[in-house]
Amino acid sequence: MDHHTTDQQQQPKGSARRERVEKERMDAEWTIRFSRVWNRLRIIVASLDRSEMEPEERRVGEEAALR
User: Fold this and answer.
1) Model-level pTM greater than 0.70?
2) What are the residue ranges spanned by the domains of the chain?
């Protein structure tokens, strides 16, 4: 039987802080991802509103909105 403990079994003192920092980083990543998707949806809706434009004008407008 192995008596050595692994990091999962015996957490060092700083692990709670590390876990909190990791969770905050993940939350920030998801916030960024969501805002990117949200912006894309807004661009799509705006392009639907401008659907009477010529295709070339619409493409140029979408590229400008992505910047």
Assistant:
1) no
2) 15-66
